[in-house]
From TrEMBL:
Belongs to the RecO family. This is DNA repair protein RecO. GO terms for cellular component: bacterial nucleoid. The lineage of its organism: Bacteria, Candidatus Staskawicziibacteriota. It comes from Candidatus Staskawiczbacteria bacterium RIFCSPLOWO2_12_FULL_37_15. The gene is recO. Signal peptide: none annotated. NCBIfam families: reco. Keywords: DNA damage, DNA recombination, DNA repair.
Amino acid sequence: MAVYYRTKGFIFKKDDRSEADRVFSIFTKDFGKIEIRARAIRKITSKLRAGIDKFYFSEVEFIQGKNHKTLTDVVAIEKNDCSQNFEKMIIYNKIAEVLDKFIKGQEKDEKLWNLISDIFKKINSQKLTADATRLLYFYFMWNFFSELGYMPETQKCVKCCEKLNPYNLYFSNKDGGIVCKNCTAENYYDKETCSEGCRRINSDVVKILRLIFNKDWQVLSRLKIEHLSLNLLNQLSENYYLYMLSSHSFS
Ligand SMILES: [Zn+2]
């Protein structure tokens, strides 16, 4: 007799298979990242259609077959239709990309689940400005890497452990955190080191990163952030993301 499993999850990817099937990639509460095949779901008569789509938050029921999981029932908890909201669309797409690229195997991860649920609540419970939406993505991305065990040092220089001088701050992907001028200077003209992320940042970016790691969204969402600092944070985040992607194999 088949065993039925039931769990909640965030649907972050869908791929069409054969004539009318579809495979959904879902980050679930109880099993981590899984793929579930929905048979004949692309037919108009399918009862499963209403409960599942990309970016939905749904309760899914499935059976585990020899080769894959098959969807047997699904109820949508939150239908996230982003077609009218460009900012939301961007953040959902970026979260989906991170989950797809950095989580390979099936494994329950309560901390990641809590982070994703937390982001969902924040996106849906308040009217976010364009800047706050960008900031919320950074909040997700940095905390995501932190949960995976790659939280950068932001309290002191990662190399010499000295207190940071707010006027001379650098960030090194390779060393995993903020580097003071003294420690940067010796390698500053070393191209390799520079290309691996010894980039200049400012004290606002450090402040924002600390708030992100403290998960202090109350303060973060009310911050008035200068355009320059937001751009610096944007470049730093993109750079760190690419560095993680190229230097670690997540499987
Ligand atoms: Zn130092």
